[in-house]
Amino acid sequence: MTMIDTDTSGVPARILKSPMHWRNAKHQSHWRSGDEEFDAAKFGMWLFLSTEVLLFAGIFCGYAVFRMLYPEAWANGSHSLDWRMGAANTAILLFSSWTAANAVRLCQLDKQFWFKINILITILCAIAFVAIKFTFEYGIKLPEGKAPGTFFSYPYATDPHEPLWWSLYYIGTGIHAFHVIIGAFLFAFVLWRAHRYQAYGPTQYTLVENSALYWHIVDLIWIFLFPLLYLIH
Amino acid sequence: MSTLEANAGHHHDEGSYFDGPPGMMARIWQWSTTVDHKKIGVMYLVAVLFMFFLGGMAAIGVRYELLDPIRTQTTEFVNAAGDIETVTVTTGESLKELMGGMFGEGVSGSQIYNRVFTLHGAIMVFMFIIPAIPAALGNFLLPIMLGAKDVAFPRLNLLSWYIYVVGCLFGVLSILLGGVDTGWTFYTPYSTTTDADHWRVVLMVMAAFILGFSSILTGLNFVVTVHKLRAPGMGWFDMPLMIWALYATAIIQVLATPVVGITLLLLIFERVMHIGIFDPSLGGDPVLYQHFFWFYSHPVVYVMILPGMGIISEVIAVNARKHIFGYRAIAFSSLGIAGVSFLVWGHHIFTAMGELAAILFSGLTFLVAIPTAIKMFNWVATLYKGSIVINTAMTYGLMFLFTFSIGGLTGLPLATLATDLHLHDSYYVVAHFHYTMMGGTVIAFMAGLHHWWPKMFGKMYSEKGAMLGAALVFIGFNLTFFTQFFLGTQGMPRRYANYVDEFQTLHQISSAGSLILLVGFLVHLFVFVQSLLSGDKAPANPWGGLTLEWETESPPIEHNFHKEPILKHGPYDFETTVPPHWDPKDYPLPENAGKH
């Protein structure tokens, strides 16, 4: 492995000598090189992302079937969502995807401070996304009775199939929000290790890159959920 | 010098993977934290064999109940006082009499029967047959056959095992709480309404959901391993066919399992929160559940059979001492089956779709027969003019050709719309399914277990005892299930504890067969235990195989090979290669071996 010539003058010896530091990281013994290990981890991540797409495919398929069967219920349901909240969350996720990509690049360049700042912004975006979702969307809709399935008690519904819309809305966005939370924890783990050991750098950034990949798919799924739920007529 | 010796003594490379630190607790700790694919494979083997035992006991329960039909008869008669009195008599509740207490008060014999066949199906499908070959034998063999030290992600591999165990615990917990009666397919609306005040069904669905994660992670691991960790010199077409089969299996596991994941999740929401997606009273559609479910569960029957076909390719080529016929055809037919498997789910629900869709699915289903038949003919052609050695593994291999042919060919009338109308949901389907899954996968699993047992545990087993077991399994299996083809064509529906008197003889023959089957497996168990306790030490290459696992010791050392193996011959070049570790005493070689 080639050593990258970067400035280490400001780094305390305790961190530089830690086996967790990116310069000291060794690939696992069953790989011929760290590069092969990195390629494999990334390939594995892409496979995992394909399973995520297929998981959400079930929800999109259910959405398509019932939208075709009950277009009125779908239109009514969509109209009672606040598109501004959806748009705000879209902007937040897109921005956080940019900071996640930034983090990978900054990590490759060994700019530890800005790398950590970008990870931190990504985590804050995730928290903002979930907060908006829970307080300004679920928190307002649920008390009105716009709840899934048999919990539905909104008195002014005009279509008998609106409960079904809300079921799919809560399950689709709920499972997505769950993924956002997992992503936030993933980045928090990366941030902690980066802060504690400087564990990631130009030759060792597998987890950073894979977390960012995961974050992009979470973003991408929202890019589909947003228009399908908020912007239909 | 002394340091060198000390190093050698402590070096991991020297000992077999079975060696461990002294002391019971230390060994348990070592095994439960291991990332060695061989240990994980053995742990899977122990776990799936235990689940096989549980599922098998449920199967014996099913056959025991069917010795007698459950009958409820109401008769009226005039009693001594001159009033008309009605008396209801229920007969034939064998399971209830045997173990009714386990299921609580007030549960009828038919309900107990429903639970027992559901347990049989759910355990066998989700906890035994899906992980049996890929996760147990596959984990052990895949890296060694590729010439690698381990799978791509060893820690993920251990995590898969733990997820599997947690899934099984959920399933077992559900059984201990009284079991579920939904059938292993969990069809809505029954599965969302039955047993409504209890968590048993949710637990069982959760079990299947969790097991799905384990399956995905194993599949993902295998795909990456095959792509990235082949030995130097091993191109895609130098891989053993077992690897091709495991690769195709892994692709299906990765692509199909997430769909059942979301389906089961929706089912849990449906049952717990009544979200209505599968509930017609809220505008939902129960048939949607069936589409989702079979979109996974049809491809997954190829997860069950493809690795079995991989085993058969190895066992037949090695024991015929002949280059496998049509290597590429077999490899591509594995991928072909994996591809077609995603297009045929509709044949489980012909009656729930339009005519055109049914015709399309029927046509696509026939496509499956082509790659399957390609494999079958290639195996038979491999046997032709081979120097066939009959040992237990080969016996099971030949048995597979026989029983799986029956299983495959009896599938065709089920794919045909007109005949399926008559046969669907009958015992014919039960028999067909068991001829493919038991006559296919389990028989292949037994072939593989006997073929690689010396490699896995470093001990030989009693060939005579194993052959006796194989004979009993063959007789028992055919007695049990061939009769069911007749029952089915005559109109015996599946999942009923009651039947007309005309069926009783066939049912009793079938039940007798299942007992012989049980004895056969117990003989195998005995042979294996005896092998572990007092078997002869296995040579490195007892059968003369050419794939890389035979290059290393039996059992393999911890890192599989002393140095990274370099491929010098193909996996089936029996005519031109002297097998590694060959001893002339063991078996003769074909004439030209080693003279290329």
Structure characteristics:
heterodimer, A: 233 residues, mainly alpha, Four Helix Bundle (Hemerythrin (Met), subunit A), 7 helices, 71% helix, 0% strand, elongated, B: 596 residues, Cytochrome C Oxidase, Chain A, two-stranded antiparallel ribbon, 64% helix, disordered N terminus
Number of strands of chain A: 0
Overall geometry of chain B comes to globular
- Report on the biggest sheet of chain B: 2 strands, antiparallel
Low-confidence stretches of chain A: none
What number of domains of chain B? 1
The CA-CA distance between the termini of chain A, in Å, is 57 Å
Give structural notes.
Chain A is mainly alpha-helical and 233 residues long. Chain A is 71% helix and 0% strand. Chain A has a single domain (39-230), classed as Four Helix Bundle (Hemerythrin (Met), subunit A), CATH 1.20.120. Chain A is elongated and about 70 Å long. Chain A contains 7 helices and no strands. The mean pLDDT of chain A is 93. Chain B is an all-alpha fold and 596 residues long. Chain B has one domain: Cytochrome c oxidase-like, subunit I domain (Cytochrome C Oxidase, Chain A). Chain B contains 18 helices and 2 strands. Chain B has helices spanning 2-10, 24-32, 37-65, 94-99, 109-146, 154-176, 190-193, 200-228, 241-273, 286-320, 327-341, 355-383, 392-409, 411-415, 417-423, 427-457, 463-490, 504-534; strands at residues 71-78, 84-91. In chain B, strands 1-2 form a two-stranded antiparallel ribbon. In chain B, β1 and β2 (84-91) form a beta hairpin. Chain B is globular, with a radius of gyration of 25 Å. Chain B starts with a helix and ends in a 62-residue tail after the last helix. Mean pLDDT of chain B is 92; it is low at 1-13. The chains are: A mainly alpha (233), B mainly alpha (596). The A-B interface holds A 28-30, 36, 39-41, 43-44, 47-48, 50-52, 54-59, 61-62, 65-66, 69-70, 73, 148-151, 160-161, 163-164, 167-168, 170-171, 175 and B 143, 148-150, 152-154, 156, 216, 220-221, 223-224, 227-229, 254-255, 257-259, 261-263, 265-266, 269-270, 273-277, 279, 282-285, 288, 292, 559.
